[in-house]
Automatic annotation (TrEMBL):
It comes from Vogesella margarita. Gene3D superfamilies: Metalloproteases ('zincins'), catalytic domain. Keywords: Hydrolase, Metalloprotease, Protease. Transmembrane segments: none annotated. Signal peptide: none annotated. GO terms for molecular function: metallopeptidase activity. The keyword DNA repair does not apply. This is SprT family zinc-dependent metalloprotease. It holds the Pfam family YgjP-like. Residues 28-229 form the YgjP-like metallopeptidase domain.
């Protein structure tokens, strides 16, 4: 009996993804995205080194298609009435109204506004609510973390970057991706600690990671969560 091929890994901006390798009699190497998973189909004789080269050459294509799949999943989750906040899933209850309003009561987010039956309108309303929550929650966590930093912040703001969870400028201005408001608070704290460490070290040297560890001991689990689940966080907006 032939052994099952070991999966391959491909590093994307938000972390590594697993690539299922399928060996099959065919003339060429093919890549497909099936149910949100990457599959690489190759003839039995093609060496692994060449397959890694193929994956690297298709990195951007794979990232785009995975992002598109996740956007579709997000839209489907909204139409089924689910929204993620602080690592918890909440039911979504939509109400027709002339102006936008949002209120979280218990396990339900009550969202009011015009034409929320349209997926694009619903997505925009959810994004506006999540960004409003991000401003409040991020400000509170930063106020808690800033006293621990080696240098004071000059300021902070929200980011909508596609490939970065946070950034820190040489002038001490930190930006945090609003989508982090959906993650558990421990994950947000890790990203904050990561950026505050950049106030002292504008690199990813051993000294930088030592500073991350000083600020936030036990950060490894939060970083791993972000690598595994970051792509599932809402991507609209």
């Amino acid at each position: 009996m032939n052994a099952k091929p070991a999966p391959l890994n491909l590093q994307l901006p938000h972390g590594a993804v697993t690539v299922r390798l399928i060996r099959r009699a065919r003339q060429s190497v093919g890549i497909r995205i099936k149910h949100g998973e990457v599959e690489l189909i190759a003839p039995p004789a093609v060496p692994l080194a060449y397959l890694h080269e193929v994956l690297a050459s298709k990195r951007d294509w794979i990232a785009r298609h995975l992002a598109r799949h996740q956007a579709e999943q997000n839209e489907r989750a909204l139409t089924q009435g689910q929204v993620l906040l602080g690592g918890e899933s909440y039911r979504l209850h939509c109400i027709a109204a002339s102006r936008h309003q949002a209120q979280l009561v218990g396990d339900t987010l009550h969202l009011a506004g015009p034409m929320l039956e349209q997926p694009a309108r619903l997505a925009a309303s959810v994004v506006a609510y999540l960004q409003q929550q991000a401003r409040q929650r991020f400000a509170a966590r930063l106020a808690l973390w800033q006293p621990r930093a080696a240098r004071p912040l000059s300021g902070w703001g929200l980011s909508s970057a596609r490939t970065r969870w946070g950034s820190c400028t040489g002038r001490g201005v930190v930006r945090l991706n609003w989508r982090l408001v959906q993650a558990p608070e421990s994950v947000l704290d890790y990203v904050i600690a990561h950026e505050l460490a950049h106030l002292l070290h504008m690199n990813h040297s051993p000294a930088f990671w030592a500073e991350v560890g000083r600020l936030y001991p036990g950060w490894h689990g939060a970083r791993q969560w972000l690598k595994q689940h970051g792509d599932s966080l809402f991507r609209y907006g």
